Amino acid sequence: MIRHDHGLGWVRPVRLTSPSLSDNSADMDRLLRALSGTGARLVADYPLLRKVSRCLRQWDFAARCVLFQNGDHLELLDILDPQGECRALGVAVDLGTTRIVMRLVDLSSREILSDTVLNNPQISVGSDILTRIHHASTDEGAEELKAMVCLAVDDGMETLCLQAGVSTEQVYVVTVSGNTAMTHLFMGLPVDHIIREPYIPVTNTPGTRRADLFLSNTHPEGRVFFFPNIGSYFGGDLISGVLYSGIYRREETTLLVDVGTNAEVVLGNRDWLVACAGAAGPALEGGVSSMGMTAGSGVIDRVSIEGEDFSVGTIDDLPPVGICGSGFIDLAAALFLTGMIDAKGKLVESACGARYTHEHGLPALVVVPGEDSGTHGPITVSQASLDSLVRSKAAMFTILETIVMKVGVGFDDLDRIYVAGTFGAYIDPESAISIGMIPDLDRTRYEKIGNSSLEGATLMLFGDRYMDEADAIRDRITYVELNVDQDFMIRFSGAKFIPHTDPDLFPSVTIPKPKE
Q1: DSSP reduced 3-state for 1
Q2: Judging by DSSP bridges, how do beta strands 263-268 and 254-259 pair with one another?
Q3: Closest alpha carbon to 392 in 320, 480, 289, 502
Q4: SS3 389
Q5: Is 386 helix (H, G, I), strand (E, B) or coil?
Q6: Neighbouring C-beta atoms of residue 457, cutoff 10 Å
Q7: How far apart are CA 209 and CA 199, in angstroms?
Q8: Which residue has the higher pLDDT, 514 or 340?
């Protein structure tokens, strides 16, 4: 199949010869013939047949044609006034468990027009995927969750278009990047077997579908492309991330880490790719830790200890209202390095002084006094929250340790480690290394790449060749199912200490002496 330097959807101007007795081709045949130089098979749906004759004569047999590359054929989605101002737009969607991030782009100029972020409304059913999957076990529950997320994306479409001063009917292409369960819930597909051994989804190749099956705020002939997924816990969001990071084209061995509700990891280079995923993130997101919340205005994302006092930094420099994953990691690192928690993550009362208190009969630490917080109440960290963090950091390190051991390489063999996602955007590698969450390597090897899922979905809008590359990435990846890995739990137990039961793994971390 011939590939050209255009997006998944794009606009091509055409000028046709007028019909005559010597050239009396049908109007649609004449139009498709003019577009046939792409080398791909062209198809047009019924609604265009109803308007093509009128529009071509109104526009003196010229038009701007909106095309969509769907595998081995081109779909003619619409024809536009050649002198008109109507644009062909695309929307990239990062379909997260907690948040949905969306971006509006011009398919012709590749200009980013607007971005928006919204909470995933399915949180009202359950903050975790497992609860949602159980809720979707009935047809009514599945339809309810589908309606929730589709309506949210529709609202996001409207917001994006209002910000850019355009109409939602100008949105012809939507690319959706989400984990396997979220993609299934969006499409209204059964999810029961995703969580049952041997962990089988309905499909790993959801492909391209008509947008009106899911969304109202797009052009009537719009299309939705869903990234392919691998396995029950390795979804299209990671394939999108691999696409954006480019690790599948690199000669050097590289690691991609994305921590959200799950920790998802890809290791490899241009010759091979291995992936795994596991639950390492819940303590770092809202809903599990009593302090944890999604990154946003006023949320603590940086913590240090200066003398006897905590020093905190917040997103947008607003009064603190809570703490997100990166701030929690900073806090734990600072507490450990100053001897305020021990190697098991337990609060050391003698070292905490007046900041040590009790909540509901359980030990806690006051990080921000009530008079200094944006909530007018103290922001505290409980022992239960710290225990949850230790489990999460242990899971994260064990996932990384397991995947490198599976392929017979060591951490020192890694040329670069890409850290992705909202979590990765704020994390301080120094703090994460100090608590034993990520390997103790030269800090220059770590590179933050932001929301790689959204960026990969945007790339897909800008280049039709990426559809083939996404499929090639999926076919090349070997997926390791951690749920059945017997050695994982053994290594996990050893990682449930700060930084680790084996201090030689973290030579740069100075382990504090216990305070009297």
Answers
A1: coil
A2: antiparallel
A3: 289
A4: helix
A5: helix
A6: 33
A7: 25
A8: 340
| Integer Cα distance of 141 and 315 in angstroms | 36
User: Average pLDDT of 454-481?
Assistant: 87
| Strand pairing category for 223-226 and 171-178 | parallel
Which residue type sits at 260? Answer: G
% of the chain with per-residue pLDDT over 90: 47
* Residue whose token pair is 């990080």: 367
Total Cβ atoms within 10 A of residue 191: 27
Residues in the chain: 516
CB 319 within 8 A of CB 368: no
Of 70-74, 309-313, 328-332, which gets the smallest average pLDDT? 70-74
- Per-residue confidence (pLDDT) for residue 290, from 0 to 100: 40
Do the Cβ atoms of 17 and 23 come closer than 8 Å? yes
Tokens 């670069």 found at: 416
Position 462 scores a pLDDT of 86
Give the SS3 label for residue 272.
coil
Q: Where are the alpha helices (DSSP H) in 356-451?
A: 383-406, 421-426, 429-434
CB distance 79 to 69 below 8 Å: no
The DSSP result for 341-374, as a single string, is B-TTS-B-HHHHGGGEEEETTEEEEEEE-GGGST
d(CA 177, CA 228): 9
Burial of 205 (C-beta count, 10 Å sphere; 0-12/13-18/19+): exposed
> DSSP 3-state assignment of 428?
coil
Dihedral Cα 366, 368, 369, 375, nearest 10 deg:
-120
Helix, coil or strand: residue 182: helix
Phi-psi sector, 45: left (phi>0), alpha (psi -120 to 50), beta: beta
Q: 204-242, pLDDT tens digit by residue?
A: 999 999 999 999 999 999 999 999 988 776 789 999 999
Instruction: Identify which of 217, 180, 258 has the alpha carbon closest to the alpha carbon of residue 91.
Output: 217
Reported as a single tens digit per residue, the pLDDT across 286-313 is 333 344 566 678 888 888 888 777 888 8
**pTM score of the predicted model:** 0.86
Q: Are 476 and 300 in contact (CB under 8 A)?
A: no
Q: Hey, what are 430's tokens?
A: 């120094």
Dihedral of CA atoms 198, 201, 205, 206 in degrees, nearest 10, equals 180
Longest CA–CA separation in the chain, Å: 102
- pLDDT surpassing 60 at residue 149: yes
In 3D space, the residue among 245, 291, 286 whose CA is nearest the CA of residue 264 turns out to be 245
- pLDDT tens sequence across 407-441: 899 999 999 999 997 666 778 899 999 999 999 99
